[in-house]
Amino acid sequence: MNPVLLTPDPADPSYSGQWPQVLARLQAALQNQGVASRSEPWTAHVDDGAALAEAPLVLPLVAWGYHRDHARWTAACAEWARAGVRLLNPPGVLAWNSDKSYLGRLADRGVPIPTTVWSDAPTQADVEAAFDRFGADVVVVKPRVSGGAWKTLRLSRGEPLTDPPEGPALIQPYLPSIEIDGETSLLFFDRRFSHAVNKTPVPGDFRIQVQFGGRYQAVTPPPDALVLAETVLAGIDEDLLYARIDLARGPDGGWLLMEAELIEPDLYLLQAPDRGEAFARAVKGRL
C-alpha cells in the first residue's frame, strides 16, 4: 500500500534546490508510520491517468509549477477524475483551488477576505481606480493563478504598473501587518488542527516565502484565528485530507483569509512539534 507523491516537471529548474527537501520530509514522516512511498512527476500523467489509477493513493503535495502550466494542470485534473485516480485532495478541489477566484466564493459564504477588485487583465487605470476605491496608498496586484508570490507586485500610489500579470488578476489593499506581524498558517489533517506557523518577511519586503528570505516559526494560534480557519474549512464541502489556511490581520486587527492552500502547500513539517506524525497518521488511515 505505497502512496505516490506527485512532484514537479523534471525539466523545470524552479525551486530545484527546495522541493526535494520538502519531499524528503514528507516521505520520512510517512516512513516513520510504516508507510513507504514513491514519487512521480505530475507532468508525466497529464494525458493518461491509468498508471496513477493503479496506486492506492496519490498525494499531489509536491506538484509545484502547475501555475505556470495551468491549462495542462486543469486538463490533468479532469483526466485523473475520469481515470478514477484515488487523489487526495480530490481532482475537483485541485482544479478550482488553482484559481484564486475561489476567495470570492468563500467571501459569499461569510469568510472575511481583503477587499478585492477582480480584473480580467489589470491595467494602469485599474490600479489607479483601486487606490481610490480602497482609500489606500499601497496595493498588491497578483495573478489569479499563481504560487510562491509569482508575478505578485506591490505598488505605491503614482508608481507605474510594469510587467503586470498576464490574464485574470486581483488587486487588494496592501496589509502593513504582513511586515509587522507576518502571516499565520494553520495546518489541518482530516480537518483536525495539527500546528501553526508564523511567517515574516525580511525587512522592507512583503513576500514571506522562504525563497525570499522569509522566517518561519511554530506558534500557538490565537483562538480567533483558529475559529476563522475552521469556518473556512466548513465552507468547503469536498473531502479534504489536508489543508493549510493562511491568515493575516486586517486594518481593524481582525483576521482575514489570504489563501486556502489545498493543492501542494508546504505543510511545514520542519516546524511541526510532531515532525509530521499527524500528517502520516491521516494518510495511513486513508490507506
What descriptors fit this protein?
alpha+beta; 287 residues; globular; 5-stranded antiparallel β-sheet; single chain; 12 strands
SS-based class: alpha+beta
Instruction: Report Rg.
Output: 19 Å
Low-confidence spans: pLDDT under 50, at least 5 residues? none
Strand order of the largest sheet: 10-9-8-11-12
Number of continuous helical runs? 9
Q: H/E order of the elements?
A: EHEHEHHHEHEEEHEEEHEEH
For the largest beta-sheet, the strand count, sense and barrel status come to: 5 strands, antiparallel
Give your account of this protein's structure.
This protein is an alpha+beta fold and 287 residues long. Helix content is 29%, strand content 22%. The chain has 9 helices and 12 strands. The protein has helices at 19-32, 50-53, 70-83, 91-96, 102-108, 124-134, 177-180, 223-234, 277-286, and strands spanning 4-7, 38-41, 58-59, 117-119, 138-143, 153-156, 169-173, 183-189, 192-200, 215-219, 242-249, 255-261. Helix 1 packs across helix 9. The chain is globular, with a radius of gyration of 19 Å. It starts with a strand and ends with a helix.
